[in-house]
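Something for you to look into today, if you have time. What I am after is a single protein written out in full by you. I want to see for myself how the chain folds. Could you add the entry underneath, on a fresh line?
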Amino acid sequence: MGGTIGNRGGVPAALTGFRRWRRTRPFWGGLFTLLAALLLLYPPYASLKFGDIEVSLRTTAGISALVIGVVMIACALSFWIRPEWRLSAGIVALLLSLVALVVVNLGSFLIGTTLGVIGSSLAIAWSPRRAPARETPETTARTPKRSERGRQDAGYKPSPVPRANRERDGETTSDGETTEVSEAASTGEGDK
């Protein structure tokens, strides 16, 4: 297998490491926010030529586009570098995306604002995965055993409401024993 170091089902080790890094932070929120910032920065400083005609969108929005774009780039990078700041940076990026709609050439023709809103929303909604708990002999001893029916044996209380497969005067437990259920419990009046 040429070119794969630490082969994991045909995926190179670099891609596996990138995937692990990407899953520990709001990667897609940062990417969408970064694309939005670049789209907001481009039109005020772009000069497009169509033959002999030069189209320029240089307006007074140039300095505000620069400020909004640079702050949104900082927010996007903070999503990747410091994921614990995702909430505050996401709120700032969301507000700047909405302000850009009014200030920066209709939010870079609505595309920049849309990408900014999507990216900041993804970053705000992202939450870190919790590592699965390791099973040790102590935790295994503390967890109650489950019966064949999937119920926990420790502290199991039968339902006071009879079901169709239970007898009228009694109820069968997981041990096969029949317990008597009072008339008040069977009608649901026992806990009032």
Remarks:
- The beta strands are 47-50, 53-56, 170-172, 178-180.
- Residues 101 and 109 are 8 Å apart (CA to CA).
- The mean pLDDT is 77.
